[in-house]
Amino acid sequence: AGAVLRIQPLRTPRDENVYECVAQNSVGEITVHAKLTVLREDQLPPGFPNIDMGPQLKVVERTRTATMLCAASGNPDPEITWFKDFLPVDPSASSGRIKQLR
Questions:
Q1: What is the pTM of this model?
Q2: Which residues form the Ig-like domain (predicted)?
Q3: Residue 4: inside a domain
Q4: How many CA atoms lie less than 13 Å away from 23 in the CB half-sphere?
Q5: Which of 88, 79, 53, 77 lies closest to 67 in space, CA to CA?
Q6: What per-residue confidence (pLDDT) applies to 22?
Q7: Cα separation, 87 vs 2, whole angstroms
Q8: How do the residues of the chain divide into helix, strand and coil, expressed in percent and rounded to 5?
Q9: What domain range is 37 assigned to?
């Protein structure tokens, strides 16, 4: 089971807070906390990741190949992770249909 909390667009200081995730079932309950800090662009530390080229809206004919590009810079170089429906895309679970090229 999983859930995603999405806050868009972020507002300072209203959204800056401690959020908690509670998981419970008939056996028990557990809670974890996460502190969200919202920074203005001019407050970002040197080397903070930046999306240089994001994926574009695509319409592709069925049975054709779709290619989407995401390019980022930062120091150190950022790792890029693709998500679908708020979950990380796992190329190994796609029987070879989905590949992430670096």
A1: 0.62
A2: 49-85
A3: no
A4: 7
A5: 53
A6: 94
A7: 9
A8: 5, 25, 70
A9: 17-93
What is the Cα–Cα distance from 65 to 4, expressed in whole angstroms?
A: 29
Q: What is the CATH number of the domain that holds 68?
A: 2.60.40.10
Render 4-24 in DSSP notation, one character per residue: ----SS--TTTT-EEEEEEEE
CB 70 within 8 A of CB 80: yes
Q: In tens digits, what is the pLDDT along the chain, a chain of 102 residues?
A: 788 899 999 887 889 999 999 999 999 999 999 999 888 888 889 999 999 998 887 888 999 998 989 999 999 999 999 988 878 888 888 877 888 777
Largest Cα–Cα distance of the chain, in whole Å? 48
In a domain, 1, yes or no: no
Distance of CA 32 to the CA centre of its chain: 19
